[in-house]
Amino acid sequence: MPNDLGDSADEPAHSGLTAEQEATWFAYMRVALRLNYEINRELQADGGLSHQDFHVLNALADSADQRLQLSDLAVRIGWERSRVSHQVLRMEARGLVARRPSSTDARGTDAVLTSQGRDALRRATPGHAALVKQMFFDGLDPTLLGPLHTALDQIHEQILAHGTLPRPSGHQTRWTTTNKA
Description:
Strand order of the largest sheet: 1-3-2
Shape: globular
Helix content: 55-70%
Largest sheet: 3 strands, antiparallel
Number of helices: 6
Number of strands: 3
């Protein structure tokens, strides 16, 4: 059936996507946008953290010495360096992180997880994990979990191969290994 752009279900839309690809992309966007809203709401209600705070705290908790140079933090969470700098300044004002001269580059600045940031992350993680389980996994057919994981890994690899940010070092392990936070 043609859509408003005049393509059939089998022909690529003007975007170059097939109808199935376009429908899948819109399904992904619906999930990502709504899930981000719910996660942000839960983190703010339960722990006074934003989703952005949680990204930064998680990355630092999962890093050697619980510190990262700002440019490495930006690569790790997929943000521009200026966005990371502004976020870290806001979080430093709240005592969640500290900025220190880089331990590896005299020209750089590291973000360091503070004890207050560790405590905030420790308090926020159980509610966050419960919400992720409820909103993301509980409605998913368990037989689709493996294929979804594989698909997401493949998509992530494609983004790393063709995106503009350098490849981050390491993988997120904080929830799957001994908790460092």
